[in-house]
Amino acid sequence: MLRTAFCAVARRGPHKAPPGAPHLRRRLGPISAFASSVDSRITRFCVEKTDLKDYALPNASWCPDMLSLYHEYLEKTKTENWVKLPSFKSNRDHIQGLKLPIGFESPLSSAQGEYRIHTRGIQMEGQGYEYVIFLQPSKKKSVCLFQPGPFLEGAPGCAHGGSLAAMMDETFSKTAYLLGEGLFTLSFNIRFKNLAPLGSLIMLNVDIEKIEDQKMYLSCIAQSRDQQTVYAKSSGVFLQLQLEEE
Amino acid sequence: MLRTAFCAVARRGPHKAPPGAPHLRRRLGPISAFASSVDSRITRFCVEKTDLKDYALPNASWCPDMLSLYHEYLEKTKTENWVKLPSFKSNRDHIQGLKLPIGFESPLSSAQGEYRIHTRGIQMEGQGYEYVIFLQPSKKKSVCLFQPGPFLEGAPGCAHGGSLAAMMDETFSKTAYLLGEGLFTLSFNIRFKNLAPLGSLIMLNVDIEKIEDQKMYLSCIAQSRDQQTVYAKSSGVFLQLQLEEE
């Protein structure tokens, strides 16, 4: 039933790979194929010249921990094969040509309004989701530096559990897509350990645990910078979908 | 470890119960005690006279399904013991006097800024979370009518999985608090079945499955109004905390 429901096929976005680049594969193949298709996706995703605003850049609302760790990871992009991901206001700017299941229709489809990815829905700096994701393809992992603002509240002073879950799901999503064509969340499981304070840095460490039968299994630990406080642990399963040339 | 972390004790909010009302209990007792403490919490929660804006009221962005089902459940509040919950911009307006764990501090604590519950963080009508929760205490269940707006997008035209998870968690949260002093999410598990279209009605049917060892176990099915399309199923565990008089 699930397979039928998620029968989507994704096509290449607007940034085509150069002629001669290998076709993207349905399943992860040998390491070389894995590496080349991953490189190709990351290159298209991290478009160098664009008029789109990148929201994953420091602003005045970032706390000192968030800012210093951002610069620390930015240094790692030069020496340790980390990649800093841009973050536009909508997934439509990142991934185009996604064919949704037959019969799927949103009542908003015909409207010409503005769309925003959930985690960039609150627009004023510092009030909602402030975050930046770094990816380390060679180790199949990623890190999200997340600072929840006062409009993500649950209990007074604390990040709403749903906002932490959404941030984890979004980090899983980008990691799964770029490192293995994982496009849709099949399941997500989170266990909360400690309340996460608004306005502070929460570090999300994500690992791809395994890939089996077109499913990617990811895990995440959300913790303080010094790793002394674990806020939550989660796991997610993503469905891999075939990517085709347009 | 978890118990130590969540050592909070909640006290009564600003709307005190009348003299002679029974003390709220740590655990659910016999049916009569359960009923009276639940009634007392609901009465305080559904404050009749307030200057606070109730966001769980129809506005021009609501789709016809959302509007008609709202009126259907509003009718049930007169005949079938359903209760329509108000929804203010912050949990601080609903539940005051919550003592957080010793040592917990948000960097924003000293700031005098505005706070919003995550699911009311996007302020413009129709763009974010449009929802209203109805509770049926006698059957330990609730219904949330949810219309995700274009600022909650995941895949184009679809609600972000994280937004659906957050809406479920929030509905669990209010249900658990009002029907059994369940205050903090311990764990949450969601399985996605079909993509949920933005701008359409998503019906969340929530049931309290059981209460054991200060833990409340809840389940949710998110589906279309005609129940022909299941979008996701979830389960959650909430920790019950002692409520004390101020």
TrEMBL record, chains A, B:
InterPro entries from the UniProt entry: HotDog_dom_sf, Thioestr_dom
Domain spans labelled Thioesterase: 157-229
Pfam families: 4HBT
Name assigned to this protein: Acyl-coenzyme A thioesterase THEM5
Native organism taxonomy: Eukaryota, Metazoa, Chordata, Craniata, Vertebrata
